[in-house]
Automatic annotation (TrEMBL):
Species the sequence originates in: Larkinella punicea
Subcellular location: Cell outer membrane
Signal sequence bounds: 1-19
Keywords: Cell outer membrane, Membrane, Signal
Taxonomic lineage: Bacteria, Pseudomonadati, Bacteroidota, Cytophagia, Cytophagales
Keyword Repeat recorded: no
Any GO CC annotation of this UniProt entry: cell outer membrane
Pfam families in alphabetical order: SusD-like_3, SusD_RagB
Entry protein name: RagB/SusD family nutrient uptake outer membrane protein
Family named by the database record: Belongs to the SusD family.
SusD-like N-terminal domain sequence ranges: 61-223
Domain RagB/SusD: 268-550
SUPFAM superfamilies for this protein: TPR-like (SSF48452)
CDD domains, alphabetized: SusD
Length: 550
């Protein structure tokens, strides 16, 4: 799949060349006509569409990259983590203060970039559909483009609700043709369902070699199943996610933390990811999200996990501290935890890259990693740093930042989420039968936790699924959408975000839960379950109606 990242640049450089007056057919360039003349040429165009995939919405933050490789990922817009107290960070300056709107965008480039990608897909679908390519090649190409278009639409739907469904190449010079009104949310969901069903029918169950990273049947079904879950279409979501389970292609990767490393890319748990390659199409996530100070490195520490999240990691007896776990020791609160805790969060006393031990406690001289309640200057606001998704093979540094040396892929769909999606949909549809327990317990077994207690009611299972989902998918950009679709954001955000303050008193460490500096989120349920459509979009298209309240 890394080949796709390289070949798309060939296409971009070729199509950027101006026409020559001498009538000579160049052998090293692709014209608009020759792009569609052979499957090989057309595949370069398709590769460029793959290269446009976004891991999370496109952020307005000054790094101007998709959130999940930016310095302000989506979990910072939830109760899972916070960014440092820095000017210009949307999660801190706009989202938490509820000062965002049509002219103060958090995800400003998202609308225009996704519709530019959708236009590419529409053009590809039109040209390939009437091409003379053999039927097998044509089916494969069309199925991939259908998925990609559905993916781009879904990334709009999740933020804005109903959006204009445009399925043909528009004439930009004809105003009456390009100004489409918004379709309803229900119409958009149905469209994505139908597109994914069509794509899945013509996609392979597995791929290998240079095609790794391309769309598969499982990817199309995963996109469909997730949106069905978000839309509350329980029967559809249960059936679609069960289809993926019955493909017998995927399984949980044994090492929860390691499944995200570059060394383990394309493992059996990964269903679909956005591909990166160091220096070619790399990222600086390891520096953005990395520990502020290491012996040989320097990170931004822009993802500080909250105590609220930490409290949801069970102990090995299957209970949290609040539930009275017998394994909870208030003088040593980080032992005997769910395996995912140590794989996800750097807490005080954790060894990390280069063998350095990370200390967030107070009282150590010249320690820029120490907790600071104010968060001033971007200092750690919670007493925790992020570990999950950071590659220990990449040192957070200026080199990583300037040269984009990070190459770990951004996983969009993986098998653990499918199990969680199925469990939730099935429980909401008909209650907690054995298939719900089986799906949940597979995930818990990998985490070193006991099976769920039997005899749970539907509501009890609902709460267990929600906690399991939060912990399993932490820092993968899912929490904000879960809070929105469960309609629990006002309750969650009404509670202060918490931090852990560790100090040494008479030679003994003390642990005190305190409020995060500036750790409150203002949320208006009358409008904030959707993002505002950029004012520039509405100014250009009078048929677009703004979301309520903005």
């Amino acid at each position: 799949m890394k080949k796709i990242l390289i070949s798309c640049f060939v296409l971009l450089s070729c199509l950027s060349c101006s026409d020559q007056t001498v009538e000579v057919m160049p052998t090293d360039q692709l014209t608009n006509e020759t792009v569609w003349s052979t499957p090989q040429n057309a595949s370069l165009f398709l590769n460029d569409v793959y290269n446009s995939l976004n891991a999370g919405p496109w952020s307005s933050v000054f790094t101007n990259v998709p959130t999940e490789v930016s310095n302000d990922p989506l979990d910072n817009y939830s109760d899972n983590s916070v960014n440092g107290n820095l000017a210009g960070i949307p999660s801190y300056t706009l989202f938490a203060n509820n000062t965002y709107g049509p002219n103060a965008q958090i995800f400003g480039p998202q609308w225009s970039r996704m519709y530019a990608n959708i236009r590419k897909c529409n053009l590809f679908l039109e040209k390939v559909a009437v091409s003379s390519f053999d039927e097998a090649t044509k089916k494969s190409m069309l199925a991939q483009a259908r998925f990609l278009r559905a993916y781009f639409y879904t990334s709009l739907i999740n933020l804005y609700g109903g959006v204009p469904l445009i399925t043909k190449v528009l004439n930009r010079n004809a105003e009456e043709e390009i100004n489409y009104p918004r379709n309803t949310y229900a119409e958009c969901v149905t469209f994505v369902q139908e597109e994914c069903t069509k794509a899945a029918a013509d996609l392979p169950a597995t791929i290998a070699g240079v095609d790794l990273g391309r769309v598969t049947k499982g990817a199309a079904l995963a996109l469909k199943g997730e949106l069905e879950l978000y839309a509350g279409k329980w029967a559809d979501a249960a059936a679609t996610n069960q289809q993926i389970m019955q493909l017998n292609v995927y399984e949980l990767f044994a090492d929860y933390g390691g499944l995200f490393y570059s060394a383990n890319e394309n493992n059996k748990e990964v269903i679909f990811d956005v591909q990166y390659a160091p220096n070619i199409k790399g990222h600086a996530r390891d520096t953005y999200w990395g520990v502020t100070m290491l012996t040989n490195g320097l990170g931004w520490g822009s993802v500080n996990p909250t105590q609220n999240l930490v409290d949801d990691y069970e102990f090995l007896d299957g209970k949290t501290a609040a539930e009275g776990s017998a394994q909870y020791d208030p003088k040593n609160p980080y032992v005997n935890r769910d395996k995912r805790f140590a794989a996800s969060i750097l807490y005080d006393g954790t060894p990390w890259i280069g063998g350095q031990v990370i200390y967030t406690r107070l009282g150590i001289a010249n320690n820029n990693n120490a907790f600071d309640a104010s968060g001033s200057g971007g200092k750690n606001r919670t007493g925790y740093f992020l570990k999950k998704l950071l590659d220990p093979a990449v040192m957070p540094s200026r080199d990583n930042l300037n040269n984009a040396t990070g190459g770990s892929n951004s996983i969009v769909f993986r098998y653990a989420e499918v199990l969680l999606n199925y469990a939730e949909a099935k429980n909401e549809l008909s209650g907690p039968d054995q298939t719900v327990y089986d799906a949940m317990n597979k995930i818990r077994t990998r985490a070193g936790l006991p099976n769920l207690p039997t005899g749970l009611s539907q509501e009890q299972m609902r709460q267990r699924i929600r906690r399991e989902r939060r912990v399993e998918l932490a820092f993968e950009g899912k929490r904000l959408f879960d809070l929105w679709r469960w309609r629990i954001a006002p309750d969650v955000f009404s509670k202060p975000l918490k931090a852990m303050k560790i100090a040494t008193v008479n030679g003994t460490l003390t642990y005190e839960v305190v409020n995060v500096g500036g750790g409150t989120i203002r949320f208006d349920p009358a409008k904030n379950y959707l993002m505002p459509i950029p004012q520039a979009v509405i100014d250009q298209n009078p048929k677009i109606v703004q979301n309520p309240g903005y």
